[in-house]
């Protein structure tokens, strides 16, 4: 008969792993043990020096050899400011004024990524890492421009810097632009409140470094 898992011991093992990897302390939020739906234990945590808004997932998996493998998504919290700065530098080549934010989704990231990993060393063809970027621009600044061509130009620069991910651009009614804050936004609520002009436009840089738009592979502009 297999030994019943000890939730407190699992939690402490995960927290110790995080502290050793990142050199800081973390606060646990909730722990869910593996079950029929998930083959791994799942901890929600956030950095002690941060806030609960900076929460991320930690996964613990019992391997066939009896070892316990721990992976986490904290790197996405750490790298976000640098990643947004790098993307802002790219977008600035296409639009003079804009706002943007980046998210990396739920789940865990490759274990080699840590505090010392710069943006330019994130990409690896054999690993799962992608970004989700939202850009806001004023209607008056782009009303005579080809938005999709601008996005292809941005995607081309992303590919040059080996930055993978999905980019959405929302054209914002001028009078509402200043009231959009920094960081992730409730896009559905903004849509309902009449912030946006039409639907968003998008482009994607895939893990194999192709550029796709409207379901087709495209050539980068510029």
With strands numbered from the N-terminus, the spatial order across the biggest sheet is 5-6-7-8-9-10
> Number of helical segments?
6
How many distinct folded domains? Answer: 2
The CATH topology of the largest domain turns out to be: Diaminopimelate Epimerase, Chain A, domain 1
Text of the CATH class of the largest domain:
Alpha Beta
Uncertain runs are none
H and E order: HEEEEHEEHHEHHEEE
Question: Terminal Cα separation, in Å?
Answer: 64 Å
Evaluate the radius of gyration: 20 Å
Largest sheet: 6 strands, mixed
Classification by helices and strands: alpha+beta
Mean pLDDT: 93
Range of helix content: 25-40%
CATH architecture of the largest domain: Roll
Number of strands: 10
The best one-word shape is elongated
Relative strand content: 25-35%
Structure description:
The chain is an alpha+beta fold and 222 residues long. It has two domains: 7-72, Roll (Nuclear Transport Factor 2, Chain: A); 75-218, Roll (Diaminopimelate Epimerase, Chain A, domain 1). It is built from six helices and ten strands. The strands form two sheets. The protein has a six-stranded mixed sheet with strand order 5-6-7-8-9-10. It has a four-stranded antiparallel sheet with strand order 1-2-3-4. The protein is elongated.
Write the layout of secondary structure elements.
Elements: H1 7-22, E1 26-32, E2 41-47, E3 56-62, E4 68-72, H2 74-91, E5 99-103, E6 131-138, H3 139-142, H4 147-160, E7 165-172, H5 174-177, H6 187-192, E8 201-205, E9 211-213, E10 216-218
Parallel strand pairs: 6-7
Antiparallel strand pairs: 1-2, 2-3, 3-4, 5-6, 7-8, 8-9, 9-10
């Amino acid at each position: 008969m297999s030994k019943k898992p000890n939730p407190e011991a699992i939690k402490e093992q995960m927290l110790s792993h995080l502290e050793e990897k990142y050199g800081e302390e973390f606060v646990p939020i909730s722990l869910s043990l593996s079950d029929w739906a998930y083959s791994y234990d799942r901890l929600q945590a956030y950095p002690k020096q941060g806030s609960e808004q900076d929460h991320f997932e930690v996964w613990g998996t019992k391997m066939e050899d009896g070892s316990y493998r721990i992976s986490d998504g904290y790197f996405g919290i750490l790298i976000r400011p640098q990643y947004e700065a790098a993307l802002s530098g790219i977008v600035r080549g296409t639009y003079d004024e804009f706002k943007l934010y980046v998210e990396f989704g739920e789940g865990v990231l490759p274990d080699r990524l840590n505090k010392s990993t710069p943006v330019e060393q994130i990409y690896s063809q054999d690993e799962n890492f992608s970004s989700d970027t939202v850009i806001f621009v004023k209607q008056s600044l782009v009303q005579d421009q080809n938005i999709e061509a601008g996005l292809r130009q941005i995607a081309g620069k992303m590919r040059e810097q080996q930055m993978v991910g999905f980019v959405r651009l929302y054209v914002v009614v001028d009078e509402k632009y200043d009231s959009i804050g920094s960081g992730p936004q409730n896009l559905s609520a903004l849509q309902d409140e009449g912030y946006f002009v039409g639907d968003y436009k998008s482009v994607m840089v895939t893990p194999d470094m192709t550029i796709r738009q409207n379901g087709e592979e495209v050539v980068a502009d510029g």
